[in-house]
């Protein structure tokens, strides 16, 4: 494993982390036993960054990670635990409802996450989304107080605008911004946001680096998705879009075969090659996919390889938005 630093003042973490969301929600039926084995395998492989959120399964994902942390309490210092707050669930429907990043809510959410995780501090605490009605200075000011109290080590933001990031960083150093970034989703990061991060010394933690599984090549049609799989609701997997997107995946596969790796490994290696300040967090609950992902760290792509991968997925060729409309409304504030 190789390691990278999260921002100018943040922690050192493995070059790729592990997204834990799919262990509890979104991608078919959860498998606690396999998920625990996968977390074991991640630590054995040198992965030190574990990513969760209070919104994943209404806290159940934090509880799952917490059960693993208790089994590995003697190795707590080896692991950087990242979690998020701000997406509140509607009590009636159980679905994510309002975004709450008010100063009053920040410490309540943090203490609840600490209880579920069973830890004394959170290594990296993100605002999951931003309520535009709440000044970011108010939110980050409250997060800063958690750092002063020793409950949080470092702070981050997710899916915010460059202007918001600047305002936040002026209140308290931001170690990382978490944002969707992959061969399928580049325009969100590349340009002003990435320039701002590099000017301020803020790392980019790339979630969905495999296009929610599309770039693995494991999905050949909507029929491969279980009835309860959330991707059935996402535009890029819709009937009118999926075949066009799978053609792009085939183009990535062709380049990967030339390199001598899997499409997933090519996609992750491409992201890693975009800069030492980029840390992908591919999610999986399966050990076999974890091993495949970890192997991408050792891939050394040439300039020609990187360009061929970029050309394989022209950004304007990807069909469909990255989220349903209701979720898109929460992004980029």
From TrEMBL:
GO MF entry, a single one: oxidoreductase activity
Protein name: Aldo/keto reductase
Signal peptide: none
Coiled-coil region: none
Domain NADP-dependent oxidoreductase stretches: 15-311
EC assignment: 1.1.1.-
Annotated source species: Streptomyces sirii
Top-rank lineage group of the source organism: Bacteria
UniProt KW keywords: Oxidoreductase
InterPro entries noted in UniProt: Aldo-Keto_reductase, NAD(P)_OxRdtase_dom_sf, NADP_OxRdtase_dom
UniProt cross-references to PANTHER family, sorted A to Z: AFLATOXIN B1 ALDEHYDE REDUCTASE, ALDO-KETO REDUCTASE YAKC [NADP(+)]
């Amino acid at each position: 494993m190789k390691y990278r630093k999260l921002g100018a003042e943040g922690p050192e973490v493995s070059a790729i982390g592990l997204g834990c969301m799919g262990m509890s929600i979104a991608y078919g039926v959860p498998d606690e036993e396999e998920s625990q084995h996968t977390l074991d395998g991640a630590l054995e492989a040198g992965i030190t960054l574990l990513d969760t959120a209070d919104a994943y399964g209404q806290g159940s994902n934090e509880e799952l990670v917490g059960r693993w942390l208790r089994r590995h309490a003697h190795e707590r210092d080896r692991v950087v635990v990242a979690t998020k707050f701000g997406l509140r669930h509607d009590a009636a429907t159980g679905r994510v409802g309002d975004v709450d990043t008010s100063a009053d809510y920040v410490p309540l959410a943090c203490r609840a996450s600490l209880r579920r995780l069973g830890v004394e501090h959170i290594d990296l605490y993100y605002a999951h989304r931003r309520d535009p009605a709440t000044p970011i200075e108010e939110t980050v000011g409250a997060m800063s107080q958690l750092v002063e109290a020793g409950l949080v080590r470092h702070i981050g933001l997710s899916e915010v605008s460059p202007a918001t990031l600047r305002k936040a960083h002026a209140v308290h150093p931001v170690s990382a911004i978490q944002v969707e970034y992959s061969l399928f989703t580049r325009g969100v990061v590349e340009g002003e946001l990435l320039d701002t991060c590099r000017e301020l010394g803020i790392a980019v933690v790339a979630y969905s680096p495999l296009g929610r599984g599309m770039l693995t090549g494991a999905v050949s049609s909507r029929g491969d998705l279980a009835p309860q799989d959330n991707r059935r609701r996402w535009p890029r997997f819709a009937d009118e879009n999926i075949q066009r997107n799978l053609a792009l995946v085939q183009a990535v596969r062709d380049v990967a075969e030339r390199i001598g790796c899997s499409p997933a490994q090519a996609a992750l290696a491409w992201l890693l090659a975009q800069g030492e300040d980029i840390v992908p967090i591919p999610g999986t609950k399966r050990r076999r996919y974890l091993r495949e992902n970890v192997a991408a760290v050792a891939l050394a792509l040439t300039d020609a390889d990187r360009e061929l991968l970029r050309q394989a997925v022209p950004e304007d060729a990807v069909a469909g938005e990255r989220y349903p409309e209701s979720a898109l409304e929460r992004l980029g504030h």
